[in-house]
Specification:
CATH superfamily: P-loop containing nucleotide triphosphate hydrolases
CATH architecture: 3-Layer(aba) Sandwich
CATH topology: Rossmann fold
Helix content: 40-55%
Oligomer: single chain
Number of domains: 1
Number of strands: 9
CATH class: Alpha Beta
Length: about 200
Amino acid sequence: MKPFPIIISSPSGGGKTTVVERLLKKDKSLSRVVTATTRAPRTGEKDGKDYHFLTEKQFLSAVKKGQMLEWAKVHVNYYGIPKKSVDGLMKKGICPVLVIDVQGAKTVSAKYPQAVKIFILPPSLEILKARIAARKDNTQNVEVRLKTAKKELKEIAHYDYVVLNDDLKKAVSDTAAIIKAEQLKTHRNLKDLKQSKVI
């Protein structure tokens, strides 16, 4: 199979991180691309595993050197994807999973037309607001994030798939089914099939 990037987006509190964590435990053909950020670590987060935590000076230096595939300032912090992380995984035959916002998804999909874009949809704005408010993170601004979420929801039409996250187990199962179907597409497997002389 020819590997391809998998882009997963949702508003803050939509459940994309949890869905991806469950997926990675089940499927070793996938690996999450660790995003770089200037925001402070949340409780339990580890540098290099959850995010590459950088100072603003370090981050902007990486941008200047062209080391970020895409980057953006979200709320008050910078987020970006190291290009070498994506390309490195695909060279190993692994599909890189990018957990990014709608702005980043547009940039990455323009550079990788073969990417598959999946939007994780929260059941309602009321539930989304409750999820954001319930986070034990004093850097969260509920109203700002809810306003951003409404803008992000308008971008769903630009995604290949949408998965409703009203039941976590089903959301994970639906997302896994999408990825498996994409991995089995003919055009992603032709080269391997020809080399094996099956066709």
